[in-house]
């Protein structure tokens, strides 16, 4: 994120500390998200926002200035906005009312909207509706994406990246096996996105590797991808640029495989094996006598003993 505060001079020590905390860092802070409820919000949307709070009437696609203002104020790079609206279609003899529940998810770069996606909620099951034991708060989830669209369609690719930013949490160096108990599964099928939440249970299997079972714990929802506001490829590439200080320097003769295993190549000079010291065994010791080496005609050396003469 660019330095928005670099042109402002602090007047007090407190303001100086504040500006330093907002200044660019080699390793940025953990991303925070703003979760906002619109002026027209149903119980379904409100419950969805509670399960995944401020109230401001705004229309993100028409005017994003309020989002950018709160982003600067709270130093947040992600936002989730919930709302619902009613559309009245006047028929000759009747009036048809259509109610739609909407979530707006997006992220910002340099305190300006980078990507924003509108998701319509068709079906929602809250945490309280599923009677099952939940995962502890703060558990790092495992994210699973199923569906060809997440790999081929550009809008679904951006949505996948956005969901990873929302649910990945802080970066950790190691995770214990028992801590891998929360699974978030996203499936793209027939123009819809199905979100399901599971808790992994480790069962006895009769061997060292446990048997894994999945138990649905909620929330779950069926989403429809609607309007999108995606950044250009150049701006998207600029937002993912890393400082040179963080780029790992390539080391000679060292490589890694897909699982992170390190391999090294060692270069050695040609060795003279004739001078190689080996372990001396009793069976290889020379016997008393004359050692005659017959190297001609490829014959192996022979050991000749002195003939005993008897009178």
TrEMBL record:
Alphabetical UniProt keywords: Nucleus
Example of a GO cellular component annotation carried by this entry: nucleolus
Record-linked Pfam families: Brix
Region described as Disordered: spans on this chain: 278-311
Compartments, as annotated in UniProt: Nucleus, Nucleolus
GO BP term (any one): ribosomal large subunit assembly
Bias (Basic residues) ranges: 278-289
Molecular function GO labels: rRNA binding
Residue ranges of domain Brix in the record: 1-234
Record PANTHER family: BRIX DOMAIN CONTAINING PROTEIN, RIBOSOME PRODUCTION FACTOR 2 HOMOLOG
Assigned protein family: Belongs to the RPF2 family.
Protein known as: Ribosome production factor 2 homolog
Biological source species: Sparus aurata
Chain's gene name: RPF2
């Amino acid at each position: 994120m660019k330095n928005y505060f670099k042109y402002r001079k602090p007047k007090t020590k407190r303001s100086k500390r504040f500006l330093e905390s907002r200044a660019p860092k080699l390793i940025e802070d953990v991303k925070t998200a703003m979760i906002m409820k619109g002026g027209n919000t149903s119980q379904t949307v409100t419950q969805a926002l509670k399960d995944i709070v401020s109230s401001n009437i705004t229309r993100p696609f028409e005017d994003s200035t309020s989002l950018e203002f709160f982003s600067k104020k709270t130093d947040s790079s992600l936002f989730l906005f919930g709302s619902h609206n009613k559309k009245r279609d006047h028929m000759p003899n009747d009036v048809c009312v259509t109610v739609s529940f909407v979530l707006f998810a997006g992220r910002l770069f340099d305190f300006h909207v980078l990507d924003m996606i509108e998701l319509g909620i068709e079906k929602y099951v809250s945490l309280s509706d599923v009677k099952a034991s939940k995962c502890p708060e703060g558990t790092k989830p495992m994210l699973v994406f199923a569906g060809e669209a997440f790999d081929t369609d550009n809008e679904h690719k951006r949505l996948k990246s956005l969901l990873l930013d929302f649910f990945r949490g802080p970066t950790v160096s190691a995770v214990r096996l028992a801590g891998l108990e929360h699974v978030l599964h996203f499936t793209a099928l027939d123009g819809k996105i199905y979100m399901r939440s599971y808790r992994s249970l480790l069962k006895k299997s009769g061997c060292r590797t446990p048997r894994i079972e999945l138990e649905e714990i909620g929330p779950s929802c069926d989403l429809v991808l609607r309007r999108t506001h995606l950044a250009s490829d150049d701006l998207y590439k600029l937002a993912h640029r890393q400082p040179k200080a963080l780029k790992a320097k390539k080391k000679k003769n060292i490589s890694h495989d897909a699982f992170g295993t390190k391999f090294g190549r060692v270069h050695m000079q040609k060795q003279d094996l004739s001078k190689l010291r080996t372990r001396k065994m009793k069976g290889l010791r020379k016997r008393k006598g004359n050692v005659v080496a017959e190297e001609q005609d490829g014959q192996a050396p022979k050991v000749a003993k002195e003939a005993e003469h008897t009178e």
